[in-house]
Design a protein that fits this description.
The protein has about 400 residues and is of the alpha+beta class. It folds into 2 domains: about 250 residues, Muramoyl-pentapeptide Carboxypeptidase, domain 2 (2-Layer Sandwich), CATH 3.30.1380; about 110 residues, Jelly Rolls. Helices cover about 15% and strands about 25% of the residues. The chain is built from 6 helices and 17 strands. The strands form 5 sheets. It has a 5-stranded mixed beta sheet with strand order 1-3-8-5-6, with no helix packed on it. A hairpin with a 4-residue loop joins strand 5 and strand 6. Helix 3 packs across helix 4 and helix 4 packs across helix 5. The two termini are about 35 Å apart.
Length: about 400
């Protein structure tokens, strides 16, 4: 979707400050980009030999069969046993408009295991991401909105031997502002193919096994990312959604990180500063309150209210946002940003008191990000009634 179409869709204009990272716990490792040399194209040319039919052209996104010869073919459930230092590579064909989730379940649960996903970039393997955190589990996901594409999932054993099962699940998925079907389906937010296009990114402290949300929440996030990208803004950084089982992140380690974030209905997202950047940082001076960290009155600084209003407006466009949480010192900056954007963001509530009183609410520990929640009411729903039932974040 082009820039003019995005602007017409959301009814916003924004400054195009473009600048080239989460309250992390149990961080996953840093991505080490694979720098593989280009590989020759092994597609078969049309044969001129008599009696031999010409081979159909290989689709652009499908890798030659001999590009990674040691990769095994995909099966839905693959039993794996690796000795220390061994690895297993599986080739996976991802169809157009298809979400593919990779889940590795292994024993012993504290084994040193890393799972990677690579994507065919037209010449070779390009690493999308990796995960090395979680007791007995590893999760990654990919999505191809435009055409079929070859991927590879690689499992490596470190100092420990382990046995496990790799599950590969293909699910139809579409981008868009509005979910039309199967909207409560819990899926992992896919790794961005290109953060500059998808509009969001993961960082070393992102816990990817906590990146699971309802389908409508993932669509909302990706729509917001694409909106900001089309307007020239750098990617934002999603923090916690829910665990892979729909529980609050941290439950798997016996230390929940939130009061909510169950069933994939919540997401934490970084905000844009007036330097055009969107990484994890506080936008005020804080003090320790009874409920956690809060902004000192009058100390808000560095927050780009207009850009953050556009980000939030892109999420409100889904029609499914119930309430969101931000520190009381930051709410007026974002609310005013919606009023001063030229023209104002169309999907914000028509009156600021309604926005401040229902959609945006104060809660401690929200001085460095906004938490957005979608409704769990059944579809179809043309409008959500106010006031929304309150649940602590």
């Amino acid at each position: 979707m082009g820039l003019l179409a995005i602007l017409a869709l959301i009814g916003c204009e924004a400054s195009t400050n473009s600048v080239p990272a989460f309250d992390g716990g149990a961080p996953d490792s840093t991505t080490l980009d694979a720098d593989l040399p280009p590989m020759p194209d092994a597609s078969t040319d049309a044969s001129t030999d008599a009696g031999v039919d010409a081979q159909p052209p290989r689709p652009e996104g499908v890798a030659p069969a001999n590009l990674v010869p040691d990769a095994t073919a995909e099966v839905p459930s693959l039993e794996t046993a690796l000795a220390p230092g061994e690895s297993r590579l599986v080739r996976v064909e991802v169809g157009a408009s298809e979400h593919v989730g990779f889940g590795l379940f292994f024993d012993p649960s504290d084994a040193d295991v890393v799972m990677y996903v690579d994507r065919f970039d037209g010449t070779g393997e390009s690493e999308l991401g990796l995960t090395d955190g979680g007791p007995g589990v590893r999760f990654l996901a990919v999505f191809e909105p435009e055409g079929a594409r070859t991927h590879w999932v690689r499992i490596e054993a470190g100092a420990d031997a382990f046995t496990g099962t790799l599950s590969i699940v293909h699910t139809p998925f579409e981008d868009g502002a509005h979910c039309l079907d199967d909207c409560d389906h819990l899926l992992q937010l896919p790794l961005p193919r290109d953060p500059a296009v998808d509009g969001y990114r993961w960082i070393p402290s992102t816990v990817l096994r906590y990146w699971f949300g309802r389908r409508d929440l993932l669509m909302m996030l990706r729509h917001a990312g694409q909106t900001m990208s089309a307007l020239g803004h750098e990617p934002f950084e999603p923090g916690d959604l829910s665990q892979w089982d729909g529980e609050t992140p941290g439950t798997d380690r016996g230390a929940p990180r939130h009061a909510s974030h169950q069933r994939g209905k919540d997401v934490d997202i970084t905000l844009y500063g007036d330097d055009g950047r969107a990484f994890w940082r506080s936008y005020c001076d804080t003090f320790a309150a009874s409920g956690g960290r809060e902004c000192l009155a009058g100390t808000a600084h560095g927050l780009d209210g207009e850009t953050d209003a556009i980000l939030y407006g892109a999420m409100l466009e889904s029609g499914r946002v119930t309430m969101s949480f931000l520190d009381r010192e930051l709410i007026p900056i974002v609310s005013t940003g919606a009023e001063t954007a030229a023209p104002a963001c169309a999907f914000w509530p028509s009156s600021s008191p309604r926005a401040r009183g229902h959609h945006l609410q104060h809660w401690p520990n929200h001085d460095n990000h906004i938490q957005v929640r979608v409704s769990e009411d059944p579809y179809p729903a043309t409008a959500l009634s106010l006031p929304f039932a309150f649940e602590p974040p």
